[in-house]
TrEMBL record:
Keyword Ribonucleoprotein: no
Compartments in which it is found: Cell membrane
Organism: Actinacidiphila acididurans
Organism placement in taxonomy: Bacteria, Bacillati, Actinomycetota, Actinomycetes, Kitasatosporales
Keyword list, A-Z: Antibiotic resistance, ATP-binding, Nucleotide-binding, Transport
Membrane topology, from the record: Peripheral membrane protein
A GO term, aspect molecular function: ATP binding
Residue ranges of domain ABC transporter in the record: 23-246
Protein's name according to its UniProt entry: ABC transporter ATP-binding protein
Length: 342
């Protein structure tokens, strides 16, 4: 899909219906041959939410966004946008999208290209405003084929926000941007959120999800394995990380079974004398360590970042033998502490 075709026409006005959910997936399946790209996905987005869609490579994020935008049809289940089909919601101009694959017309200026997007939008904003809001008013006269990757992304963003859409869908919008450009981009995006828009963005930058989103969805093998605030997802994965050294017993061993049986432990790793525990209640776990008569040395207790929580829950989901469609967020509690999570 081109970025141009992502810019849609219609009556939107920056305020979503309060009644119908903005987006609703019901038992949606999408296969590509033997690959289950989206597997029994149930999902609802509500007006005004800023939602991050996370998941490892191949988790089904882009496919889910394609289904949401009516670019693909589900094999089974249903997708509704503003209470109607994606095609009708898009034809009504309520959805703006910025997709990974959006090619840009090359032999035109930034202003001409964004102006075209405005021309196609019945509730368009003036092109100067769109350029300014996207932070590209300074490069309006530059040819599109002379832009850096980060500038191209901003042009795509401008085209997706050329008019008064109620929902903005962004597939990895900050790919190719440096840290400064990313920060500037999200400052721009916050302006859109403040105008009452619902925003759904797929990202691999977990710090973006943590900082920007008020809701985080984690997809794995096409199924939703976690849905909550970043704080809730961290808590679900075991919010605290406890590290200490233990002296071995007379046989030169550390009693792993006793440590595994400690209360509130959701992950355990023992390397030499060093014990690493993930716990959802560090106080309760440590009280029990002392009650066992152990004498931990070099004790450290720290919070788990979203990145570590994300790794923990996707690894837990990968470890379960159940099909992706039936995997739930409770799988988080089955994870073992992995060295890679630290
Ligand atoms: N057109 C297609 N034909 C065949 N398989 C596809 C097609 N599109 C996606 N897939 C497969 O479907 C699965 C989900 O892919 P998708 O692109 O939705 O994942 P993603 O979460 O967006 O990944 P990434 O983070 O790498 O962009 C993958 O296994 C992918 O190889």
């Amino acid at each position: 899909m081109t970025a141009t075709s992502a810019v849609t026409a219609g009556h939107g006005g920056g305020s979503a219906d309060r009644g119908a959910p903005v987006v609703s997936f019901r038992a949606v399946n999408k296969n590509f041959g033997a690959v289950r790209a989206v597997a029994g996905l149930d999902l609802e987005l509500r007006a005004g939410e800023t939602v991050a869609l996370l998941g490892p490579n191949g988790a089904g994020k882009s496919t889910a966004l394609d289904l949401l935008l009516g670019l693909r049809n589900p094999d089974s289940g249903s997708v509704a946008v503003f209470g109607t089909t994606p095609a009708k919601a898009i034809a009504a101009g309520r959805v703006g999208a910025m997709l990974q694959s959006g090619g840009l017309m090359e032999d035109v200026t930034v202003r001409e290209l964004v102006g075209l997007a405005c021309d196609l939008h019945p509730r368009a904003y003036p092109v100067d405003r769109v350029l300014k809001d996207a932070g590209i008013d300074g490069i309006g006269d530059r040819k599109v084929n002379k832009l850096s990757g980060g500038q191209e992304q901003r042009v795509r963003f401008a085209m997706a926000t050329a008019g008064a859409n109620d929902l903005i869908v962004l597939d990895e919008p900050t790919v190719g941007m440096d840290v400064t450009a990313r920060q500037a981009f999200w400052a721009t995006m916050r302006g859109q959120v403040e105008q009452g828009r619902t925003v759904l963005f797929a990202t691999h930058y977990l710090e973006e999800a943590d900082a920007i989103a008020d809701r985080v969805l984690v997809l794995h093998r096409g199924a939703l394995i976690a849905d909550g605030t970043a704080a809730e997802i961290k808590a679900r994965a075991g919010a605290r990380r406890i590290t200490f050294d233990l002296d071995a017993d007379r046989d030169g061993r550390i009693d792993e079974a006793a440590l595994r049986g400690l209360p509130r432990v959701v992950g355990l790793d023992i390397t030499g004398p060093t014990v690493r525990i993930r716990s959802d209640d560090a106080d309760a776990t440590m009280h029990a360590v002392y009650a066992l008569g152990l004498y931990p040395r070099n004790l450290e207790v720290s919070g788990l970042g979203l990145e570590q929580a994300f790794l923990a829950i996707t690894e837990a989901a990968a470890d379960t033998a159940t099909p992706a469609a039936t995997t739930t967020a409770t799988a988080v509690t089955a994870t073992a502490e992995e060295p890679g999570n630290r």
